[in-house]
Please model this.
Amino acid sequence: MARCLRGLVALIFFVSAFAFSFGVEAPKLVQKDGRWAFLVEGRPYLILGGQIHNSSSWPSELPQVWTSMAALHANTVEAPVYWEQIEAQQGHFDFGIVDQLVQGARAHNLHLVILWFGTWKNGNMHYVPQWIKTDPKRYPRMINPSGDPIDVLSANAHTNLDADKKAFTALMRHLKSADGDDHTILMVAS
Model:
């Protein structure tokens, strides 16, 4: 529980810095009399959310997502954004799916929590772009005890970190311009 709370506090701090640049009161955790509350736009906010299945934030699946969220009476949707979706070609970003998520959440009166599926998801590199998957020399893998590379990018390779950082930074810049003062996005987690 404490680990989850620390992670949430770190995310809220990040979103606070993000929202500060818009002049909008940032989401934050507050403690009073030993109790915690999550505030959105200065008011207590209870997330009644649903998470989009990992492979369901593809455009063809989104109509069913919005229907499901309405049936749940949700106020927040947690949606994955895959690195391979936004940077299929190195250095060329397409945020179309991100924009569809933001616009869809707004159209259905939902807040949005974005999950960044970058270098790792459940320890594997399934959501990295193909240009990384096909260049193990430049983007090295972890090595198993038998000396064979496995389906996991090495945490010790600066090229892996730098590529993910560039993509994540580009995503955050885009979110800043796409979400502006609307404040649809509550937080981004990775």
